């Protein structure tokens, strides 16, 4: 057993940003975060807003904190869980990403129509819905998962307006 130290350890680090920087790097080592989410977590730990803003600027400039990488990883994970672009975009907005970053990341994402078909088949089987009530039930499920109307129509085989037929020229 090593001998006990009787004197407290004295930190020779006089940098006022040292503690928030260490906390930020520790948080980012576990998972990617947006600047907004990182700021919320650091302020929740009691660090001053000015220090948090400075740390976020440093980490963004060095590439450690990267919104595009966060968005790509987020989309890949959630699309893999069968969630659609509408739901993913809403969650990315809540995480503090800009609309431009969200649009760019969603454009680089998977084929959303194919994903909607895959999610529908996984839940309801390979056969397309045979009745309008069943088609509506499947559409509600896909809407809840975050797919747009176009994706839902592609997945369920629904016509835009079955009563009137194709539009007149």
At a glance:
This protein has 9 helices and no strands.
Descriptive report:
This protein is mostly helical and 169 residues long. The chain has 3 domains: 19-65, Arc Repressor Mutant, subunit A; 66-109, Arc Repressor Mutant, subunit A, CATH 1.10.10; 111-160, Arc Repressor Mutant, subunit A (Orthogonal Bundle). Helix content is 62%, strand content 0%. It has 9 helices and no strands. The chain has helices at 18-30, 35-44, 49-62, 67-80, 85-94, 99-107, 112-124, 132-145, 149-156. α2 runs antiparallel to α3, α5 (85-94) packs antiparallel against α6 (99-107) and α7 crosses α9 (149-156). It is elongated.
Describe this protein with a few key phrases:
Arc Repressor Mutant, subunit A; 3 domains; elongated; disordered C terminus
């Amino acid at each position: 057993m090593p001998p006990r130290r009787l004197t407290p350890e004295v930190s020779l680090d006089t940098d006022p940003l040292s503690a928030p920087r260490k906390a930020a790097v520790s948080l980012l080592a576990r998972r990617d975060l947006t600047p907004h989410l990182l700021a919320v977590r650091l302020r929740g730990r009691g660090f001053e807003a000015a220090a948090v803003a400075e740390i976020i600027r440093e980490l963004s400039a060095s590439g450690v904190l990267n919104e595009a990488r966060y968005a790509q990883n987020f989309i890949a994970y959630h699309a893999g869980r069968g969630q659609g672009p509408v739901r993913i975009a809403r969650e990315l907005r809540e995480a503090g990403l800009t609309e431009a970053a969200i649009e760019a990341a969603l454009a680089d994402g998977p084929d959303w129509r194919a994903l909607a078909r895959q999610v529908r088949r996984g839940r309801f089987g390979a056969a397309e819905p045979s009745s309008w009530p069943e088609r509506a039930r499947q559409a509600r499920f896909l809407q809840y998962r975050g797919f747009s109307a176009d994706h839902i129509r592609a997945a369920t085989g629904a016509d835009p307006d079955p009563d009137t037929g194709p539009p007149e020229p």
